[in-house]
UniProtKB/TrEMBL annotation:
PROSITE patterns reported for this sequence: HTH_ARAC_FAMILY_2 (PS01124)
Keywords tagged on the record: DNA-binding, Transcription, Transcription regulation
Pfam families attached to this UniProt entry: HTH_18, PocR
Full protein name: Helix-turn-helix domain-containing protein
GO MF assignments: DNA-binding transcription factor activity; sequence-specific DNA binding
Keyword Transcription: yes
Top-rank taxon, per record: Bacteria
Amino acid sequence: MNSRYDLNRIIDIDKWHKLQDSLSLVTKMAIITVDYKGVPVTKHSYCQSFCQAVRKDDALSSYCQKCDARGGLEAVRTNKPYVYQCHFGIVDIAIPIIIDNQYIGAIMAGQIKLRDSGLPLEQIVTRPPNAETDRRFAALQPEYQSLPLLSSEEVSTIADMLFHLCNYIVEEAIHKHTTIDMYKKTLSLESPAAASMRAAAPTYETIQAMQSELSSTLIETKIKKSTTNEYRSSNPLLQPAFDYLYRHKHENIRLQDMASLCHVSPSYFSRVFTRETGENFSVFVPRLKIEWAKQLLETTDLPISLVSDELGFAEPGYFIKTFKKFESLTPAVYRKIYYREHERKL
């Protein structure tokens, strides 16, 4: 399994652990965060005494590890929280963190028992009968009986809440991380945007303004291999419109605005534009943006939603629909195929 995102670099581990502690207190569940390899990136938040003892036992801890591994794999396979029973019948949840179809880690929560039978759960690992392990389990009965009790409905609600909350927080962190990274790179460029912002610090309060100001410059630096060079019109009347299109890739450009720029009526502009390009304005512009989008997907790790924003699409859903219209596949699948082919050639 592979991932382009490093959870350790994306999130502030100290702040994340405080959030994890708070979630653990509210949900009554023990929680730990792992990266895409299954390696913990945080400590356990409120690990139950029974599970602490079991995981310290050499004869029993291996079964716990098998449960963690199986639960994580099922969560990745289904792309949603996977609720299951461990080898002691304790309820655990594997909650995948998936951004742009990339699995980057998981939240492992649980160490509770159900007070009802409303949730049919698989016991994913079974221990063979063993007198010694049975004796050790019997010795831990007080700790086992003190495990928190939750209803099936509470477990399902918590699983969904953790899934949406953690994926949202990580996606926002990726956006912020990407923006600051782009900001630093842009400062090294000799551009008006870089010069005007050289003295500004990339604080949380300035990130949104920074994104807007740098969009045009950043896109230009990322789209290096594009075969769609700036269009030179055979009709001088249209050239201001083409110049504007190529220099404002991050805007949602309307035909009426381009007609006004060229000092003609929208209907006349539309006829002349179609005669010049062989395509309606409403087809030419999105096709051009999808070509630029392909370059960003190939050369950056920008999330799909940010690629959509950078190219002026109203919302990611419309961007994905437009991309599929021209390329017959989604942006995420296109990126996956490109990376696979690129790695195969290396």
